[in-house]
Every structure is written in structure tokens, then in C-alpha cells.
Amino acid sequence: MRIRPYLPSTEHKSGKVLLTVIIAVVLLTGYLGYLYYTVQNDKTETYATSKQIAQKETPLNTVNSVSRYHGMHQYDIVAGVDDNGVKGFAFIPVTDEKEGSVTYVENTDMVVQEEMHRIWEDQCADCSFIEITPAIHQGVPLWEITYRDENNRYVFDYYKMENGKRFEVFRLQQ
After folding, report:
1. Is the model's pLDDT at 6 over the cut of 80?
2. Is the per-residue pLDDT at 148 higher than 70?
3. What CA–CA distance (Å, rounded) separates 143 from 136?
4. N or C terminus of the chain: which is more exposed, having fewer CB within 10 Å?
5. What is the chain's alpha carbon radius of gyration, rounded to the nearest angstrom?
């Protein structure tokens, strides 16, 4: 039986490697956290300005929510209520050069969300509903209905807010 001599450098190397791995994991986690925070902050930084623009340029005086729509151009969608209690949406373009003006739609001038959901259900009985959100394309206010169809395709279906007629549809294969 051979006795191995004690080599202190062998024990210290494994400790240094472990310490290096721990530091690398902590730094990576910190960087990913910072990246997530930055992306989320960039996403919502225009919300306060869009809320002010909506209250200034439309009848909305109470804001219930602000969301983002990404189509050909980005829009902040401000949902709120006017002095008479009528709900509406203000579509605020989010660009440096403000290529479009604010578009405003009241509930009285459109097919409301619940009614649009019923219209969609009648047309697509075998589909699995995901969500319905406001959208806008080329100045036309739309409802974006997201669902899975009978062939398990992920579908974005767009309907005009003014009359509930289909505007556009995108089906994604898996």
C-alpha cells in the first residue's frame, strides 16, 4: 500500500474553483436581474406621459389602465372613463417623431369587449380562448382576440371596434 504525500496545493485548487463558480453565478444572476429590470422599466416608462396626454386631448378624466400594443407602430392604450361615466380608449402613438395623432373611441361608438367575445364564440366554437385586448392598425381601432383553433394553431384575430367585422387574421403553426 502506497501512501500518498500530502499536497496542500491540491486542496486549495478545488476551493478556488468552487469560489470562482459561486462568484460567476452571483454575477450572472445580478446581470440577468438588472437586464430584466431595465427591459420592464423601458416598457412602462411612457405610461405616465401617455396618461397625461389622454387626459389632456380626450374626454377621459379617470384612467383605469395603460397597456402597450406592438403592431407596425407602438401605441400606449389608455382605458378610462369620462365625466359622464362613459368608458373609452385613447390610442397614444409611442414614437420620437409622433407620426400619428391620438385616436379616441368611446364604448357608445363601438362593439364592447363582452359583445365582441360573444361574436367570436359564435364563429369559433371549437377554439380555446386566451384573451381579448384593444389594438390599432393604420389608425383603425381593433379588438385583438388571441386563441388556439381546432388545429391547435396559435391565432391572432383582429376585428374592427366600430362594427365587429373581421379585419385581419394571423395563424401560427407549431
Report:
1. no
2. yes
3. 8
4. N
5. 26
Angstrom distance (rounded) from CA 169 to CA 143: 11
- Tell me if 32 sits within 8 A of 26, measured CB to CB: no
Q: Is the dihedral of CA 10, 15, 21, 27 positive or negative?
A: negative
Give the predicted TM-score (pTM) of the model.
Answer: 0.73
Q: Which residues have a Cβ under 8 Å from the Cβ of 97 and sit 6 or more positions away?
A: none
Give the separation between CA 93 and CA 76, rounded to whole angstroms.
6
pLDDT of residue 73: 85
- Strands 62-70 and 74-81 turn out to be antiparallel
With CA atoms as reference, report the closest residue to 69 among 114, 133, 113. Answer: 133
Provide the pLDDT for residue 125: 80
Exposed e or buried b per residue across 72-81, where buried means at least 16 C-beta atoms within 10 angstroms of its C-beta: eeebbbbbbb
